[in-house]
Design brief:
heterodimer; A: mainly alpha; Helicase, Ruva Protein, domain 3; 2 domains; about 70% helix; about 0% strand; rod-shaped; B: Glutaredoxin; seven-stranded mixed sheet; elongated
Amino acid sequence: MRGAALALIALVLAAPAGASEQRPTAAELESELVCPVCETTLDTSNAPVALRMKAYIRERIAAGDTKSEIKAALVDQFGPAVLAEPPKKGFELIAWVLPLAGLVLGVVVVGLLAWRWSHTRKAEDEPAADAAEPLDPALERRLDDELARFEP
Amino acid sequence: MTGRIRLVAQIAAVAVVAALLGLLGWKLTQDGSEVTAQLDKGGAPVAPAFTLERLDGKGDLDLASLRGKAVVLNFWASWCGPCKDETPLLQKGWKRWQGKDVVFVGVDVKDFRGDAKDFLARYGVTYANVYDGKGSTVGRYGVTGFPETYFVDAAGNVRYRIAGPVEDAAELDAGIERALAPA
């Protein structure tokens, strides 16, 4: 029963993505593709090449092409720089991996510093705990003698 | 142990900074504004090399294979308005200079192949044209807009540049004469 419910939820969540892939809208593609001349997304560009690309997208949607097919055709013409999001493979993978690696590195560095700081504090606290221990009798006697000299 | 960790962290930090500086340097060397900068100072920079697919389907064209001839290198695109006015003038110029150690090469940039082929057919262009959809030549030559024309001498050095459309036959011929003149 629980498995069926999970499968249903997964299906409901996956349905819009599948529909978008099979029947993309011009608006979503224009927000995911970049004008190669002005380097802004197509939906914010009126450069001649952007207008031509928008017309091409509409032609391909009308012809029944999927989102991936339309993007692949445009990458073939203009190169991967036409994608607003870099592809998750090859050299462009760096654009995805580097921020995550930086984040992980930051967490590790902060963790190490916190660990070191807490251990340093502990080490500083330790002599105070030792002070509670009884002194050597000879040393204690000498301390009492010294203190007695200052008493009236 | 702590000292060792600190040393490793310092080396890693220096390595990251060095890598970022390397990336910056690489990016700057990819920028072809050096060609236009040298031209502006009266120099004759080496024309950046390229091998690109010909739009007539006859394989690739390597710029280096044209050494020994002056090359009129015209950057254009089918969606570019001024290119439509300029192309007939270039075609006439090609007819005039053909067979005189001068070669015309069009570089179609950031364009659809199909549109480019239609454009060439519409204007009856007979000189060689190559396809650079990704615009790999733009940065290296320092092209600032379309159209733009570079005149390369027989040794492969850029001698003159016209930013914007070539206005008339006299301007085109003057550029070619510069490319043909002894260095």
